[in-house]
Amino acid sequence: VSFELTEVADAEAEIQMVVRVPDHGIAATGDLVYSGVHLILAGPADTWTAALQELADDGDPVVLPGHGLPSDASVYDTNIAWLAKAGELLGSVDNAEDFKQGLVDEFPELGMSGAIDFVTPFLFPES
What we know:
By secondary structure, this protein is an alpha+beta fold. Helices cover 39% and strands 24% of the residues.
């Protein structure tokens, strides 16, 4: 069995590791990917999105995320859409409550909405 190790910088964390098993179509993504739950916006959305797109382009059908249950590659689209919506909201709302509600309204199927609260004190220190 061969493994492919890739270091990813400036995504959900400063440095992360993705482990792929290409012969079996598996990507163990760590905290780069959240499955079925809201993301914790702890890193820059642009580089995080780029990393997710690269993983999606690899085409592995089995994704083992850092948060949530194993998934298929559609999880990348959900994560990318979430990051885009978070960026949109950061440019249009001025408080933590509206930011969180905007994400919950846009992604009602995702659980763990309390994860959003981890970063809102940093995003909206005046709230």
